[in-house]
Each structure stands twice: as C-alpha cells, then as structure tokens.
Write a structure and sequence with these properties.
The structure holds two protein chains of two kinds. Chain A is of the alpha/beta class. Chain A is 59% helix and 8% strand. Chain A has four domains: 162 residues, Rossmann fold (3-Layer(aba) Sandwich), CATH 3.40.50; 67 residues, no CATH class; 197 residues, no CATH class; 180 residues, no CATH class. In chain A, the strands form three sheets. A seven-stranded mixed beta sheet of chain A has the order 2-3-4-1-5-6-8, with helices on both faces. Chain A has a two-stranded antiparallel sheet with strand order 7-9. Chain A is elongated and about 100 Å long. Chain B is mainly alpha-helical. Chain B contains one helix and no strands. At the A-B interface, helix 13, helix 21 and helix 29 of A face helix 1 of B.
Chain lengths: 706, 48
C-alpha cells in the first residue's frame, strides 16, 4: 500500500456496527455534523495506520446503492464522487453483519460494481458464533476477490487485523471477481447505456453500470435527485431494455436481484455453514404474539389505550398542583404590587399565559416517557411492522408508520422522517395526512376541554370516560389520516410500490438514563420553545384585549343589563372587535368571538389557544378572585342569551376542529421546505381547514339539536 | 391614560415582546429562506 494519506469510506446496512468500527478506528479524532442543508448525520474522523494519517468517513446506513432514499443517495453519491461536498474515497470498507451474511453481501457486490478498492469487514462474528454460524473468511475472500476481515467490533476484537489489512492492501491489484449478468440482462444494460446514459446524461463513469441496472429495475426515473434534460429519450430506452427482458420470459424488476443473490449464494456456499437448528430466542417467542396478524394490531391498540389513560390520570394530581400554584401566585402578586397597568399585565397576561404552558408539562412528560420506553424496548419497530399491511391497503407505505407515529409527538420531525419513504407519491401522501396525528401541542387543548366538559365516570371498572374520550381523539386523528390517504391514493397516479424492509431489533430493557434524559429534554423544549411564544403572545393579547379602555359612562349607556363591565370592556377592545368581526363565520360551528381570537393566535402554536383563553378570561378579574381556567369556561355566560357559552356541543365541535384543522405555521413552513413548493402547504392548509369546519359544523348542529 | 411608572414598564415589556415575535416569525424565516435559495454550504458551513 502506498504511504499516501487515503480517504476511507465505511459503508454497510443499518445496524451492522458501522459506528462502533468508526469509533474504534478514529477514537476521539472525529467530527459529527449534518450534511449541508439536510438532517442526515455526517461523521468524519482520522486514523493513523503504519504512521500515515488517513481520513475516515462513516457513510449513512444503506441496504443498497439504489439511491431512492436520501441517506442511501448520500452514500451512493459519495462513493461515486458526485457529492459536491465530499472527497472521492480511495478505499471502501464494506461492513457486513456476519450473522446475516447473504443479505449484507448484496450491498457489497454493488460497491464492487463501482470498480473501487474494497475490503469486506465481517463484523459481529461473536453473534454469528453464538447462532452456530461458521464462516470461512478466506474462502469468501477467494470467491469475491477482495480481502475479507472477520472482527467483533463490540468486543474490540480484530481491529488491529483490520488496520493491518488496510496497510497491506495493494490498491493497484486487479479488479475483484464480479457477478456476471445473464445475456438478456446484459443486453438490456447495453441498451440503456448506449441509447441514454452515455450520450445524454452526466452520470459519472464508474456509476453508469449501476445506474443502468437501477433504471431497468425501476422502469422510470421518478426520484427528484437527478434532473435529466431529455427524459423522453431515456424513458424510451428504458422501456426497450425492459421489453428485451420480458421477451426472454424474465421480470425486469427482480432479475438483477435474483442474479446477484445467485452469485452471492455461490460465493458463500461451502464458506458459511450453520450447526444444527437455530435457537428460538426470547425475541422470537415474543414476536410470535406481538407481530401476529390479529393479536399484533390488538396489542398495539391496547398499548395506546393504556398509554393515553395513564397520561390523563397520572398527570392530573401534578396538574392540579401547578394550577393551584399559579392561581395562588397570581393572587399574591395582585395583592402585593400596587394597583396599576404593570400589576394587571403581570397577573392577567404573564402569569395567566405562563400558567397555561406550565400546567401541561406533566402530560407532555408522561407522553414522551411512554414513547421513549416503546422505542427503547424495540416495540416501536414492531408497531410499524404490524401496521404495514393495513397501511399499504389505504394507500400509505410501511415506512409511513414511523413518521406517522412520530407525529404523535410533533408533526415536524414526522414530516422530516418521511424522507425515508422512497416513492415520491407515498411520501407526499404521508406528509399531507401526517398533521392529523394528534401531536403533543393538541394535548393541552384536549385536556382542558375534556376536564371541563366530559364527566369522570368510570367505565369497565378501570377506565374513565375522560380517558376514553382522550384515546378516542387520538384514534379519530388516525382514522382521518387513513381516510384522507385512501382518498389521495385515488387522486394521485399510482407509482411503483417499493417493498418495506425493516430491521426488527431484539427486545431489551430500555436504558433508563436515556429515557429520562430524552423525556426531560422534550419537557425543556416544550417550555423554552412553545413557552416563549405562548408568553409573548399572551402579553400582546393582553394589550389588545385591554385597549382601548371603555369608560364607565360608555358602559352605562351601551351595555345590556346582564353584561358586566369586564365583559363590556373586552367586547370593546381591539381583540374583542376583531373577534366580533369573525364571529359570523364561526357561529355555525358553535364558537363565539373569544374562541375565534384563540383560534387565530393558536396558529402560532396550537397550545397557544389555552394561554389565549386564560388571558382573555383573566381580563378584568378582581384582585383575589382568580379561579382556574376550567372553572371560568364552565361558568362563562353569554350576556345576550343568558346561557352558558360552552355547551357539550361547543366543546366537542372545538375538539373536532382542533383535531382536523391545520393550526400550525411551523408545520406549513416545514412542508414548504420538504416539498420545495408552496403548492403542497397551501393545499394542506385548505383541505384540512375546510374538513375541520365541515366536521365541526355537522357535529355541533347534530349534538345541539339532539 | 396616566403615564405612571407601571404604564411605562408595561409598554416597555410590550415593545420587547413585539420585537421578539417579529424576529421569530418574520426576520429569521426571511433570512433563512434567502440563505437556502442563494447559497451553497460546504460541510463545515456555519451559515444555518
């Protein structure tokens, strides 16, 4: 090997211990950042082998070089040298899971097709041994024509051998042995290369062969990564190549995969063997039940029901304490500070707004606590697996499950996670329905309305009506997402379905430190991010709801006999006038102008609604008469009708509106960024808001007339 | 309306809050979209 410094890339399937090897090679000499403009992690470091400093790049995990997924595309483009921000690697270490060799060698054969120096690293040899698998690395090395190094990175075994293999590697050695495509496939490759890729595209030379195979298998170029100038010519060449294969009685989608696996099988036969029956592990036994096609979804639904019941009941005592603390704190400040505008602003604006945020911390913490436990145990991957069949039927994809479940926390990471969906149509449908999932920002609104208007009646001895309503709202979001996806499936033209490949990790006890740390981090983000906005909007709103001041004379002259001076003042404020302006539009769905104002402010963040109502209902309170927002809502009387403002019909209509409406400007911004167009966010806002209005209207009118 | 100390402080708070909201929802997103449109970051770029 030359004594020149090299750029060495690590590639491999996800969960093959790539990062452990990267850490073992680089130690503390590493730098972790995001790839520019995207959230895929980029890890680079250096290692000294034989006195020479080499650069190591840990590429994102990939199952294949068919670069439909963003992270696979980065891995692929880095390898072929077309990723503008990365150097072309001089050497590639393909990391393979020794306990699952054939599947891992698929990627290895693709990398070998790029004509790059390759070393195959067989990691997790210890696990392979435990499973009774014996591998003869030398035989595999001979069959593939590349160096093969067996290691166990977790136990730090074989790292020095790997370094020695890198040091001894002759980069000028002839090309490794490669798989040989059948005659029909070879002819198809030549057609695509000669009639399209070589004359019309800028695909780098070393990648043309792989690119031709990908296009033959795909049948079209529906990914947004390459912009071809004359797509018509390309489509014609691809169709011709596929027809050649079909004429030979083969399937162009599967031919390459089958032939590669035949080649892999030839290479590993005699080099890899398994002793006796594979042991049935505890994970296998649990999975037999948890991923069962009937029991699996039922268990998933039960876990969700338990989770939301627990969030509601366990958080209540803490919420009551926080509520009391802010009520008492507000009373204390009101009585301690001299009367004046600052006194009113602090009590009715700042304290009321702050209280509206802090009170929901227990529920947020419990929600994320459960989510992180589900992730930590390995159950989340099973949830995605059991829902895959159902998702496919309704027009989504198995990969949509994880983004949709992330949507329970917040739509934004969910929408970003949708990048892992290869097919553009599947991805756009997932993004468009994802905001229906009940995010944690809706939780404060649901919790407030349920606590105020749904009785805490016990059902089936264990659950309460409140808990079930809470669960029902989450299910409602899922049902609406599924229904919307089914409709969109009919609207958007059908693209090619890509298979759902997902690794099911072994079950394990979650790392509690990580669960608590992540939960605390989420709570902190809620307070610092949403909290800042809520308090700021509460302060602005207090001014808008307090000015212009209506005098006593005006009140006496204009107010009705049942209206209090506080209510009269609010109605004549800027906020009140604006609320009154939009009231005719929202009256049919049971909302008054106060709710109207909070609907508008909640566009900044959904949970702002609670803070807004808190501020509006605090305006004009007498010192010492502060009560909880829940009580204020229950006791609010419409001065014109003399009836309560909030009936059960209004509460349900409001919950439905919140479940369906696109009340989040951050989500709109992220959809614009992810789709690179205003068309999708505008369409999302329009259809969701229209749907919310129609459903709330139907619910309100039906329940009111009941 | 009397212009006492409490009123001055209250309006001072309002001014700070309005500046914060304008920065959070108008100025920052505008700057960010400018950066996204016309700038190609390198791996170590700090512009975002």
């Amino acid at each position: 090997m030359s004594s020149e410094p090299l750029t060495i890339a690590l590639v491999g399937n996800p969960n093959t211990g790539k990062s452990t090897i990267f850490n073992a090679l680089t130690g503390l000499r590493q730098k972790i950042a995001n790839y520019p403009g995207i959230t895929v992690e980029r890890k680079a470091g250096t290692t000294i082998i034989g006195g020479v400093l080499h650069k190591i790049i840990d590429l994102p995990g990939a199952y294949s070089l068919n670069y439909k997924k963003l992270d696979e595309r980065i891995a692929y483009e880095t390898l072929i040298g077309s990723y503008e921000h990365e150097e072309v690697p001089d050497l590639v270490l393909v990391i393979a899971d020794a306990s699952n060799l054939d599947r891992n060698l698929y990627l290895a054969t693709q990398v070998m097709d790029l004509n790059m120096p390759v070393v195959l690293v067989l990691n997790m040899m210890d696990i392979a041994e435990q499973n009774g698998i014996t591998i003869n690395a030398e035989k595999i090395s001979k069959a593939l024509g590349i160096p093969v190094v067996p290691i166990s990175a977790k136990n730090k075994e074989g790292i020095e051998t790997l370094k020695k293999a890198i040091q001894d590697l002759d980069l000028t050695k002839p090309d490794p042995l490669k798989w040989v495509p059948s005659k029909a496939l070879n002819k198809a490759i030549e057609t695509v290369l000669d009639e399209w890729i070589e004359p019309y595209t800028q695909v780098p030379e070393r990648a043309r062969y792989i690119e031709a195979l990908r296009l033959i298998s795909e049948g079209e170029f529906n990914d947004p990564f390459y912009k071809f100038e004359q797509p018509g010519v390309g489509k014609k060449a691809i169709a011709k190549a596929r027809k050649n294969i079909e004429d030979e009685g083969a399937n162009p989608v599967a031919l390459e995969v089958l032939q590669r696996y035949n080649f892999i099988s030839d290479c590993t036969s005699g080099a890899s063997s398994q002793n006796g029956q594979q042991k049935r592990t505890l994970t296998d036994k649990i999975d037999a039940v948890v991923t069962h096609k009937v029991a699996g979804p039922a268990i998933f639904a039960l876990i969700l029901l338990f989770m939301f019941q627990a969030i509601f009941s366990w958080a209540t005592p803490f919420m009551d304490m926080i509520d009391l603390f802010f009520v008492e704190g507000g009373n204390w400040i009101a009585n301690t500070l001299p009367p004046g505008m600052l006194n009113d602003l602090l009590v009715e604006g700042v304290i009321a707004g702050l209280g509206g945020v802090v009170i929901f911390i227990p529920q947020i913490l419990f929600l994320f606590f459960f989510i992180y436990i589900l992730e930590g145990t390995g159950y989340m991957a099973r949830a995605a697996f059991v829902m895959d069949g159902f998702m496919t039927k309704v027009g989504l994809h198995g990969r949509s499950v994880v983004p949709l479940m992330s949507g329970f926390a917040c739509a934004i990471p969910g929408i970003m996670a949708a990048r892992t969906i290869e097919n553009w149509r599947d991805r756009i449908i997932t993004i468009m329905v994802l905001p229906f999932m009940a995010c944690s920002a809706r939780l404060p609104v649901y919790a407030l309305l349920i606590a105020a208007f749904i009785p805490a009646t016990t059902v089936l001895g264990v659950f309460t009506l409140q808990g079930i309503t809470f669960f029902g709202l989450y299910i409602f979001g899922i049902v609406m997402a599924v229904a919307a996806a089914a409709v969109m499936k009919k609207i958007f033209p059908t693209g090619q379905q890509t298979p759902f490949i997902m690794e099911l990790p072994s079950y394990k006890i979650p790392t509690w430190a990580v669960v608590f740390q992540n939960t605390a981090e989420r709570g902190k983000v809620f307070v610092t991010e949403a909290g800042k906005i809520i308090v700021a909007i509460s302060i602005v709103l207090w001014f808008l709801a307090s000015f212009p001041k209506a005098g006593t004379e005006q009140y006496e002259a204009e107010a009705s006999s049942t209206e209090t001076i506080e209510s009269f003042q609010l109605r004549h404020s800027f906020a009140g006038k604006f609320g009154k302006l939009i009231e005719p539009a929202i009256e049919p769905i049971g909302f008054d102008w106060k709710i109207g104002i909070s609907l508008l402010t909640s566009f900044a963040a959904r949970e702002v609604m609670v803070g807004t109502l808190n501020t509006i209902y605090s305006i004009g309170e007498e010192d010492g008469d502060h009560v909880t927002l829940k009580e204020k809502l229950i006791n609010d009387i419409n001065p014109e009708t003399g009836k309560p403002v909030y009936s059960i019909a209004t509460a349900i209509s409001l919950m439905i509106f919140f479940a369906l409406a696109m009340q989040c400007m951050s989500t709109i911004a992220i959809v614009k960024r992810e789709t690179n167009s205003w068309k999708w966010p505008v369409a999302m806002f329009s259809y969701m808001t229209a749907l919310a209005y129609i459903c709330s209207f139907i619910a309100f009118q039906l329940i009111s007339s009941w | 309306m009397e212009l006492d100390l409490q009123t001055i402080v209250a309006f001072g708070i309002l001014l700070v809050v309005v500046a914060y909201l304008a920065n959070r929802f108008v100025i920052k997103p505008f700057r960010k979209s400018k950066v996204e449109q016309g700038h190609h970051c390198g791996p170590d770029c700090k512009c975002m």
